[in-house]
């Protein structure tokens, strides 16, 4: 039970680190137009599938961690725990990667519309 709580805290913490917000130099920018463009670019960014990346990475993490534990001579209980930890770590990493990609899409979209993106 404690392992699951720690895993959820890890995933939540990593998700909080990932942000798709863009910092734009708005000097001389029509704010109404900027808000419209930002909303449209954000909609494009939301098309990035973070769930699929997380699921693939979780599966990979589980297989690799379980296999390593098996090779090192772990019993079935240790293999299961290791695979679970690998799945959590892999899933969190995949979700973080997906969120990072969303941020990149947002920034690229705004740059394409002529804004000076600072991050």
From TrEMBL:
<protein>
    <recommendedName>
        <fullName>Glycine zipper family protein</fullName>
    </recommendedName>
</protein>
